[in-house]
Design brief:
alpha+beta, three-stranded antiparallel beta sheet, single chain, Immunoglobulin-like, 2 domains
Amino acid sequence: MRNVDFSPLYRSTVGFDRLFSLLDTMGQPEQASAYPPYNIERTGENSYRISMAVAGFSEGELSIEAHANVLAVKGEKAEDDENAGSEYLYRGIAKRAFERRFQLADHMEVRGATLKNGLLHVELLRNIPEAMKPRRIEIETRSSEPKTIAAQKSVEMDAA
């Protein structure tokens, strides 16, 4: 695998430190597990949804926290006393705890979360402040006087 050196970009850009740090970490192999699986969808121009498959977890066993552009979803399964006397021949349903973190862009806010049919849906909205939105700058034109000069030249040419 190739390593990319972003240090020349650090010198010529301002304020993109976090972006280059993310690119650096993307090249490294993922150390966290792939559990639980998730989707990220764009549901509108400025709205997004993260859907996670958390079958077997209840609302009380899940926690969602957003802090400093990081969304953390944690799940911790309570001990199951109802199956204490049974013996599993095959156990394919995961009961392990998990923590999944998502790096959020600036001005992203978490609007809410729902748990339905084993899927946790986290709704996100990109809310850009008015001061950060692009605006059109009008170009002012200064009145020049070439028309007057051209009129004077035409009068001088007629006299000649």
